[in-house]
Amino acid sequence: MYILVAYDVATTNAAGRSRLRRVAKVCMDYGQRVQNSVFECKVNPAQFTKFKQTLLEIIDLTQDSIRFYHLGTEWQQRVEHFGIKSSYNIDGPLIV
């Protein structure tokens, strides 16, 4: 599954800033940051279930929001990139 995750976390207080850091850290465990609050993730259904549940446990549903876009298996034809940050090959090698 190819998933696009976008979130908006209220950062008007220390608790919100902490949630923002925690959400970003979880997203980095599952995918690649492509914008400040947008991640592209390639996961299997079990990973997605755990990923989503973890994020929903972190965010405050009264102040924050998160969206999951399911791009499916034909995602290569659905993603276009323009601008300064170069695109990457999600199936290519990951150097840490």
Topology:
Layout: E1 2-8, H1 14-30, E2 31-35, E3 38-42, H2 45-58, E4 65-70
Antiparallel strand pairs: 1-3, 1-4, 2-3
Helix pairs in contact: 1-2
Using only C-alpha atoms, the radius of gyration works out to: 14 Å
Distance between the termini: 23 Å
Strand order of the largest sheet: 2-3-1-4
How many structural domains?
A: 1
Give helix % range: 25-40%
CATH class group: Alpha Beta
Model description:
With 96 residues, the chain is an alpha+beta fold. It has a single domain, classed as Alpha-Beta Plaits (2-Layer Sandwich), CATH 3.30.70. The protein has a four-stranded antiparallel sheet with strand order 2-3-1-4, with helices on one face. Helix 1 packs antiparallel against helix 2. The longest helix is centred in the first third of the chain and has 17 residues. The radius of gyration is 14 Å and the shape is globular.
In short:
By secondary structure, this protein is of the alpha+beta class.
Tag the structure with descriptive keywords.
four-stranded antiparallel sheet; 96 residues; Alpha-Beta Plaits; globular; 2 helices; 4 strands; alpha+beta
